[in-house]
Design goal:
Number of domains: 5
Number of helices: 17
Shape: elongated
Largest sheet: 6 strands, mixed
CATH topology of the largest domain: Nucleotidyltransferase, domain 5
Helix content: 25-40%
Number of strands: 30
CATH architecture of the largest domain: 2-Layer Sandwich
Strand content: 15-25%
Strand order of the largest sheet: 15-14-13-16-18-17
CATH class of the largest domain: Alpha Beta
Amino acid sequence: MTKTTEATVVFTPSGKRGSFAQGTSVLDAARTLGVDLDSVCGGRGICGRCQIIVSSGDFAKFGITSRGDHLSPFGPAEKQYAEKRGLEEGRRLGCHSKILGDLVIDVPEESQVHRQVVRKRAEARAIEIDPLVRLYYIEVREPDMHDPTGDLERLKEALRDQWDVEVGAADLHALQSLQPALRKGDWTATAAVRGDGALIHVWPGFHDRAFGLAIDVGTTTVAAHLTDLASGEVTASVGAMNPQIRFGEDLMSRVSYIMMHPGGEVELIAEIRTAIDKLATEAAREAGIDADDILEITIVGNPVMHHLVLGINPVELGGAPFALAADGAQLVTARSLDIHAVNQGARVYTLPCVAGHVGADAAAVVLSEAPYQRDEMALIVDVGTNAEIVLGNRHRLMACSSPTGPAFEGAQITAGQRAAPGAIERVRIDPETLEPRFSVVGSKAWSDEDKFAKVAARTGVTGICGSGIIEVIAEMFLAGLLTTDGIIDGTLAGRTDRLVQQGRTWSYVLHRGEPEIVVTQTDIRAIQLAKAALYAGARLLMDRMEIETVDRVVLAGAFGTHIDPKYAMVLGMIPDCPLEHVQSAGNAAGTGARIALLNAGARAEIERVVRDIEKVETAVEPRFQEHFVEAMALPHKTAAYPNLATVVTLPEPQTAGPASDSGGRPRRRRRG
């Protein structure tokens, strides 16, 4: 007998090694060793996902010499793939490369099944790709008169033999389309199989496009991120106003509408489901894909939105004890939620809710930021109409919500608007002249620069968005225009004509022109109420945790992305902390939804973590009101801000003089 010559193969970066008979394909060797090398076509040279690179040279640590000619020559299948789809120089297809001698083979990141998507922030968690739905290209035995086995059984057999994948149940629509697909593909097909073994779709021939939608259903806006399930790349992001806003700007207004209009939940359910379906259509169109390519959806949202998407009446969340219909994760079909612009077999996974007022969006933020994996004490604030707050580390996690209202998003503000082109988003006030300058969304130019005129001509100066109202109020305070109690000091009217009296209160003119943009005493009160609720919720958790300071503050949410940490602290929205330790996490809820979309294990992980989070209900906590009252002052009535004081000069605490009294009565100036 002729002895088969064997070669040693080492795969990097995993370091896995083994001995294989010459003539073994690199893909087969990788599978034998459990190396993370991707393939959809099953080694037929079609998908190109098993690309590898030979590392040439003497590798003393492995005890081998690796050379390019230790692989079989570039073959016809590789040449055809390179001509049709392109193949970088030095790369080979693992399925058509035969081992002829000792090799060190590098598996590039894009060829790894469980590759990681690295997020932009250095301290942020990378996303490991391990999706619930996978595609498998197979060749199915044709039927004949001597074998009565059905097409589904032969397809299952092909998956078992060619991929070692066991399929249990098949969705009805997949079964209905199975026979036409197999015959159109000349007995080759691509099967979409979920991790639980469900066959959800069959395409004729080779198909390698699989996408998912990560959806964040907010009170004000809905955002959807179309994501490639193989690469983790976001191929389209679309958003829209939540159409339920016509039933009320905040959650309780919508719950009240349902209470006052029996059957009203049907309207709200239909509105949000239609919005999601439209976003799915828009995302697919923008990415240039077919609706059938969208195979999985994850949805996060606050408890009221969570219930309405699932078709559950949320009235129980309108009063104590704020009972959820279900707080665990849910897995349903997209069709059951009237989402039609996706594959008929697509499933919807909703992350678990934390508590009656702390929803699946908070769970998604926790999954994204992973405080449960760190020693540092982190305060994570998802700033929105209903702020959700998480405090803790690997040893203990707590969560609560605070009813901040829509003021931070520009609602309830005289000139408030969404962050659209023309909205004032940055403000500075000269403490000597009390004159303002500002920039608007869509331009980096400041209003005191010559080039700003062109900007204004193009977009106009239309109003003031959330970040703008935060900055103008903080700047007014730093310039001495606002007292510690948040009263506009009318005694300064002699120094600037920007202060104008409106009845018994004063306003500050930020922009003269059409429209005139003013900051009123009512605007300042709305922001004070919102920021006091935010701070009080955070302080309540810190009391429970028995700590006075935190190591890190994370501002999450679309609005949190645009807040300057310095101004958030000047207003007292968050506790004192070194400014370099205050970070913006962007849309962390959306990122958490993407993690759950791309990684099967993350779902079990967040379900476990949520069960261990201690829930604090601010509505029944007596100290919440005490913290709230003290937090109405700027930045706070009693809490010290030593870290902030190293960055800005905080005015001495004082109240306004007689000319500024909102009630028309003299007030005594005080210190302390």
